[in-house]
Design brief:
The chain is of the alpha+beta class and 430 residues long. The chain is 63% helix and 19% strand.
Length: 430
């Protein structure tokens, strides 16, 4: 019987799902998020496509070689008493074409393709920064809530010890039942807060798992719980390196090149081509004047050099209207740049202000924590020698809990502000 139970237990253990466990620093969190993010992979593919488009556009500068082969099969034709036989006649040729002038369309198209590569590269950087900022936010939020759980557990332990201490005092009539109930009520409040905090940790863990691209049941242990905050130095206040700004500049330049593309439609084009044609299996059969039958096969090849020029004369104003439309698009791109430049600068100034305010909050929280810890130590000593009331001690413990919570929140929020500042200034890297 015991052996049967053992085998059942082992079978259940084997069938239990084994969830991964990760120990991650902030840098490792960033790398994993970038590696597993679908948007990052799409951005990388778009960058590769843009480079291929550039190579395709460059090919328009080069000559094109085309080959052709035509086979003919038809019934014999009467040709002045003879038969022209085209059963299996073939015509083969090679054509080499080189554009000389296309109104500037090829040059403009190549510049547009280069701009496309630049845009794809900036979009890739933007996606990378967005993912890193999101990962940092999830990482530090997870740490903040986890540290609050630890703080509440420590506070709960203090209250448990105080409860048992007062319970013994009640037994020897050194404390009242009301004191015991007051501590027990505080324990219930902390237990409620602890359960809420643990639920918050679980939600933050699943959010972090989603950001990292791993299974939501993965256990994650953050290694940077001892958060070091350094005073902010001179902060960059320029948006020149931000991907969004560079994309706007590229958009303006792209619309400028579109004007040249539209203008090319009203300009003449010039090109040259070389061709070589060869035909064979063309036969002529008949009878000579003396009645002697004959059959002769014709096959030959010939080269040819051609030059062509095309001049658009009248298209009902289509070309001029296309140019006007392209110029309006160019103006719109410039206006869009001006509007968004202001918004990006405002966003950067807000991020700089958040850094300054966040650091001041950290300093204030550190002072508050130091004062609360000292106050709690004094109250605990005073309570031990009956120099203060239980209410005073509980108030001191509550103040310490709030100060500790504020310190954790201030430090993690400052780290999030740091990442956001680096993102909006275009400096955020893995």
């Amino acid at each position: 019987m015991k052996r049967t139970i053992l085998w059942i237990a082992l079978g259940l253990a084997v069938n239990l799902p084994a969830f991964a466990q990760l120990q991650l620093s902030q840098a490792e969190c960033r790398k994993m998020a970038l590696k597993n993010n679908e948007e990052m992979k799409i951005a990388e593919n778009s960058y590769r496509q843009a480079k291929l488009d550039k190579e395709i556009a460059f090919a328009a500068y080069l000559p094109e070689l085309e080959g052709s082969l035509t086979g003919i099969y038809r019934k014999d034709m009467d040709l002045m008493g003879a038969e022209l036989q085209m059963r299996g006649t073939y015509l083969a040729g090679l054509t080499l074409t080189q554009p000389i002038f296309t109104g500037g369309k090829i040059v403009a198209s190549n510049k547009l393709a280069k701009i496309g590569v630049d845009c794809a590269e900036e979009s890739l950087r933007k996606t990378e920064m967005d993912i890193i900022a999101e990962a940092d936010n999830a990482y530090w939020t997870y740490i903040a809530v986890g540290e609050k759980v630890k703080q509440l557990e420590a506070y709960q332990k203090q209250l448990d010890e105080l409860y048992h201490q007062i319970a013994k005092s009640v037994e020897v009539q050194m404390a009242t039942q009301a004191d015991l109930l007051r501590v027990d009520s505080k324990r219930s409040q902390i237990l409620y807060q602890l359960k809420k905090a643990k639920n918050g940790v679980e939600l933050c863990r699943m959010s972090l798992c989603s950001t990292l691209g791993v299974d939501i049941h993965t256990t994650i242990q953050a290694t940077e719980t001892n958060i070091e905050i350094t005073s902010p130095q001179q902060l960059e206040s320029s948006i020149l390196m931000r991907p969004e700004y560079r994309l706007l500049l590229n958009q303006v330049e792209a619309q400028k090149q579109q004007i040249k593309v539209a203008r090319a439609d009203i300009l003449p084009t010039f090109g040259i081509s070389a061709q070589y044609s060869y035909y064979g299996n063309l036969k002529l059969a008949g009878q000579a004047e003396d009645g002697t039958p004959f059959k002769q096969e014709y096959k030959d090849g010939s080269p040819m050099l051609m030059a062509s020029i095309s001049v658009p004369l009248f298209r009902w104003g289509k070309g001029l209207k296309g140019i006007k439309k392209a110029k309006l698009n160019y103006q719109n791109a410039q206006l869009d740049l001006q509007r968004n430049e202001r918004l990006l600068n405002i966003e950067l100034q807000q991020a700089i202000q958040n850094i300054a305010d966040g650091y001041n909050l950290v300093e204030t929280a550190n002072i508050g924590m130091s004062q609360a810890a000292e106050n709690l130590r004094n109250m605990q000593n005073s309570y031990d020698v009956s120099m203060c009331t239980l209410t005073d001690l509980l108030d001191a413990q509550a103040q310490w809990q709030e100060a500790y919570s504020n310190q954790i929140e201030a430090k993690t929020q400052y780290k999030i502000y740091e990442s956001e500042y680096m993102r909006v200034s275009g400096q955020l890297k893995p």
